Please model this.
Amino acid sequence: MKKERNIIFEASPTIKPSVLLLTLVVVFMGGVIRELAMSPVEVAGLSRVNELLMSVIGILSIIISIRILIRVIILRRTKYIIRADSLERKTDLIFRYKSRKAPINELRGFEYSQNTIQRLLGYGSIRLLTGGTNQSLGFLVFENLPHAGKARNHIEDLIE
Model:
């Protein structure tokens, strides 16, 4: 693999916040299902309410878990690149390749943020705004970025 020139910063997003979220969902939903099994809810005129509630919660748990697992797969195959002249996000999945690149001279600003899980784990997200419209490349997102402060400093240096 050849080394690309003028790369200032290159990183892959971490999957730790998504894995932690998945763990929390599974533990919480499992606890709710266990509690329903141990102490049945009784509603006048309705039989088998607990079975229905446990089924609905189980299905919701599966749907949410699948969504988080898909996110983990996408994040594992994503790369963020900061060059002297552009910012780029690449995602290479089995049947799909996607690359979004924004020239530095079109960068209008950026936002640095951390949700609760990212803050606990020391990661962050950077949203980059360009001069694009709704039909063009108006934004670029680097999410769950390790060393997000370092990336933010590189971007600040480039736009000054």
About this structure: The mean pLDDT is 85. The domain at 7-13+81-159 is CATH 2.30.29 (PH-domain like). The helical segments are 16-38, 49-76, 116-121, 148-159.
